[in-house]
Amino acid sequence: MDLFEYQGKQYFARFGIPTSPGGVAETVDEAVAAAQAAGFPCVIKAQVKVGGRGKAGGIKLAATPEEARAHAAAILGMDIKGHVVRRVWVERASDIAAEYYAGFTLDRPNKVHLGMLSAQGGVEIEDVAATNPDAIARLSIDPVRGLDLETARRWVAEAELDPAVREATAALLCDLYRCYDEGDCDLAEINPLIVTTDGRVHALDAKVTLDDNATFRHPEWAEFAATETEDPREQLAKQKGLTYIGLDGTVGIIANGAGLAMSTLDVVNQAGGSAANFLDIGGGANADVMSAALEVINTDPKVRSIFVNIFGGITRVDEVAKGVLAALERVKIAAPIVLRLDGTNAEAGRALLEPHLSDRLIASPTMLEAAERAVALAGG
Ligand code: GDP
Ligand code: MN
pLDDT tens digits for 284-318? Predict the structure, then answer.
């Protein structure tokens, strides 16, 4: 789960990482009040889970309440790379002497943690990595041994940070590592990590990705989950215990098991079409699961046809057929459905469906033929 900047800063604060005090606001009036509480000049920052807000006009300095009002009005509701701004974070503006970069993430192939530190922060770290890779001091960290202050001191020297702030930065990096490690992050990144004109180091931005596998250890993450702005269909599917991923095509897909769902995507492509989603209903395919799956797909206006591809193993195909029929009674489906049911009790399942088949509910004996029909119905 990705956090908003303000949530990332709250998370940092728990581990003693300095940030500017401020407030979050959902309306222009709240933003002005937050600005007055923070003091002027202040900075109004769009809260969207995407980088490059500054360049997109989502970050503005305000010297007066009037300016704060004008900026908040402009930023709230703004679209930044497809993300609509619903909240702003308002904090006292900092006077910047230098902008650094600091971050920890997983180095999966090497089975270690990776720290990255650079005196050239503020800009996208990918750009620094591409144009001036030597400007990033990388540190591999053994997850069992962790990061100690001595190592952090060598690291800040290697990154050639201003000697005056090396000691404070080394301590901050140890705190950030604790946040990353004990706080169960996949990514904990500060860009820019600033040096203020009066010589303090300070997180001006926060990019935190929490490791969803650790959710059980963190009941306090529930407040972050509550503000997750995920795709409404993914939300609906999650509520119903289904694995759903939205894609760009026109053929809606329901399959049992991730492997078969992937093969179904492939065969739809092979037939010249494109999948609107990936939906794995898992092992069971009873009426509840099938209704839920159809309901989720039905809310996608891009879907022109639905391809239900079930291979009965433990799940018997006659049960699946009953599930499909029951689901069709419950949910009014906008798109025609092509069914390919095979495996355990396939004959019995097809016999159950037989009287209900029409040009809106089509049975097809093989996966490829079913895909071709679904693609044709979707208009190619
Ligand atoms: P991003 O563009 O989404 O990464 O947003 P950041 O929070 O990193 O802000 C982008 C840039 O805005 C920073 O690199 C700073 O140059 C500038 N900025 C943000 N906050 C302040 C502030 O308090 N004072 C000043 N002077 N500049 C700021
Ligand atoms: Mn940033």
Answer: 667 788 888 998 999 888 999 999 999 988 888 89
Indicate whether 32 belongs to any domain.
Answer: yes
Transcribe 68-100 into DSSP letters.
HHHHHHHHTT-EETTEE---EEEEEPPPEEEEE
Give the global pTM: 0.74
Same domain membership, residue 218 and residue 255 = no
Domain enclosing residue 287, as ranges:
232-377
**Closest-CA residue to 356 (of 311, 326, 378):** 326
Decide if 2 is inside a domain: no
**How many folded domains does the chain comprise?**
3
Whole-number percent of the chain with pLDDT over 90: 78
Given 92, 116, 133, which residue is the final one in a domain?
A: 92
Q: Which of 373 and 51 is assigned the larger pLDDT? A: 373
In a domain? residue 8: no
Ligand 1 mean position, distance from CA 32 (Å): 19
Cα 354 vs. chain centroid, distance in angstroms? 42
CATH of the domain at 184: 3.30.470.20
Q: What is the DSSP letter of 15?
A: T
267 and 215 assigned to the same domain: no
Give yes or no for residue 41 CB within 6 A of ligand 1: no
Q: How far apart are CA 4 and CA 125, in angstroms?
A: 19
Q: Which residues surround ligand 2, an ion (CB under 5 A)?
A: 191, 205
Q: pLDDT tens across 41-55, in order?
A: 999 999 999 888 999
Question: Does 118 map to a domain?
Answer: yes
**85 has a pLDDT exceeding 90:** yes
Residues with a known catalytic role: 101, 189
Find out whether 162 and 98 touch, Cβ atoms under 8 Å: yes
Name the token pair of 202.
Answer: 């300070």
pLDDT of residue 58: 97
Q: How far is Cα 302 from Cα 247, in angstroms, rounded to an integer? A: 10
User: Any idea what the CATH number is for the domain that residue 338 is in?
Assistant: 3.40.50.261
Here the tokens at position 140 are 């591999």
What is the per-residue pLDDT for 229?
A: 65
Among 64, 92, 120, give the residue marking a domain's end.
92
The pLDDT, as a whole number, for residue 113 is 98
Q: What's the pLDDT at 52? A: 87
Pocket probe mutation, ligand 1, options 5, 78, 90, 96, max atoms within 8 Å of Cβ: 96
